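Dear support,

I submitted the protein below through the web form. The confirmation email said the job was done, but the results page showed an empty box. After a refresh the structure appeared. I'm attaching both so you can tell me whether what I see now is the final result or a partial one.
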Amino acid sequence: MGIKKEIRNDPVRITGTKYRPIDNRADIINYLHKTIDTINSLADPFSKALIAVLMISYIQPFEDGNKRTVRILGNAILLANNVCPLSYRSVKEADYKSATILFYEQNNAVFFKELFMEQFEFAVDNYF
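What the results page shows now:
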C-alpha cells in the first residue's frame, strides 16, 4: 500500500516520546496554515527556517518523512534568502532526537536552536 503523499487522516506515533501529534485532519491543515502565515510574516531567514523545521515537525502532517521534509523546507527557505543550507552532518543523532523531543514535550526550543546555529556555523566553516 505504501506511504500516502497527502496530509494524513490517521494518528501517528513518534518513537521515544510521550508526545502525540494532533490527529484531526482539519486541525492539522489549520495549524499548517497558521505556521505558514507566521513564517511569511517574518523577515529573518533563520527565524523562518527554524520555525518551519520545528513547527511542521511538531504538527507531523504526513504519515512518514516529516523531519526529512522539514529539513529540506528549512534549507529551501535559507537558500531563497541567499543563506547557505544546513547539512546536519555533524549533529549526533541522539542530540537531534533529544532536542526535537524536548520541543515536542515541553515546547522548549533552546537546545534545537543551538543545534541549528551550530549547523549554520559548521556549513559556513566547511562549505563556504
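Response: this is the final, complete result; the empty box was a page-load delay. Residues 25-127 form a domain with the Fic-like fold fold (CATH 1.10.3290.10).
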